[in-house]
Design goal:
- β3 and β4 form a beta hairpin.
- 30% of the residues lie in helices and 25% in strands.
- An 8-stranded parallel beta sheet has the order 9-8-7-10-11-14-12-13, with helices on both faces.
- It is globular, with a radius of gyration of 18 Å.
- The chain has 2 domains: 113 residues, ornithine cyclodeaminase, domain 1; 175 residues, Rossmann fold (3-Layer(aba) Sandwich), CATH 3.40.50.
- 44% of the residues are buried.
- The protein is built from 9 helices and 14 strands.
- By secondary structure, the protein is an alpha/beta fold.
- The two termini are 19 Å apart.
Length: 299
């Protein structure tokens, strides 16, 4: 069997609507079996993720996270993605790591926003000005045609480079936003619950280890909390671990994940504050890589 090599050339044919539909279809299949292995060396990380969805296939994704790479003009996150045939286990495709990561990460949070954010949302605050934040501009714009973006970053120059309005004061920017998207590597809360306003939606993306979080306990306690997958967030990410540990919320306060009935993963009223925690598990990489592969094969 010929192994397909899929690179950035397929990206112009990908659509955010097509991806979110693929994610929804993937969650109607049998629940994924997933395993992660993480190794650390100081601030550097090696993450090996595997997923198997019966009827869809298998994926192994290896990621390296080296926060200091920016100083060398290199991406901080690198890696490789391999796809395998569901019935034979034969390697079928090597898919560009950055392409899968970009579309999986942004598509995950876009699906949450599609279900939870107010339909009239327009003012979108990006907390962080890296690769993920840039991807979210494209993703959100596909859903909110009138979106106006504001960017806050600890480094004002990187925020300015995004080409949108720059916020100097984070609290003021949070209070004014309809959607707040956090995409940092912060180990301490940046967005405070006391700043949140009725009707806001928050997509929390950046924190991915037990030591990381981007919002405080009060934010989690005030919001209706959703996750993409309980299996990859509860007990795994500081965003959820710490408020449960402190008693600010309980595990039962996580209302739904994408495997639950979609009617439970919804906004109840215009005044709800909603939080969606993006855990980005390997099953989402598999669904995304499969979507990319199908688009590539469609010619």
């Amino acid at each position: 069997m010929t192994v397909q090599i899929i690179g950035q050339e397929v990206e112009p044919r990908l659509t955010w609507d097509g991806l979110t539909a693929a994610l929804e279809a993937g969650h109607r299949r049998p629940r994924a079996e997933i395993r992660d292995m993480v190794l650390y060396r100081g601030g550097d990380t090696l993450l090996n993720r595997a997923a198997w969805i019966d009827g869809l296939g298998q994926l192994v994704k290896v990621a390296t996270v080296f926060p200091g790479n920016g100083g060398h003009g290199l991406p901080s996150v690198n890696g490789a993605v391999t796809l395998y045939d569901d019935q034979t286990g034969v390697l079928t495709a090597l898919v560009d790591f950055h392409l899968v990561t970009k579309w999986k990460t942004a598509g995950d949070s876009l699906l949450s926003a599609k279900r939870l954010a107010r339909k009239d949302s327009r003012r979108i605050l990006l907390v962080g000005a890296g690769t993920v934040a840039r991807s979210m501009i494209s993703a959100y714009s596909s859903l909110f045609a009138q979106a106006e973006f504001t960017v806050w970053s600890r480094n004002r120059a990187t925020a300015q480079a995004m080409g949108h309005s720059v916020a100097d004061d984070l609290e003021t920017a949070v209070r004014a936003a309809d959607i707040i998207c956090t995409a940092t590597m912060s180990r301490e809360p940046l967005v405070m619950g006391a700043w949140l306003q009725p009707g806001q939606h928050l997509d929390l993306i950046g924190a991915y280890t037990p030591a990381m979080r981007e919002v405080d306990d009060e934010a989690m306690a005030r919001a209706r909390v959703f996750v993409d997958s309980r299996a990859t967030t509860i007990g795994h990410i500081g965003e959820v671990i710490e408020p449960i540990k402190s008693g600010a919320i309980s595990e039962a306060d996580v209302i739904a994940d994408f495997y639950d009935d979609p009617t439970s993963y919804v906004r109840r009223s215009a005044d709800d504050i909603t939080i969606a925690k993006n855990g980005g598990g390997a099953h989402l990489d598999l669904m995304t890589a499969d979507y990319i592969s199908r688009v590539a094969n469609a010619g």
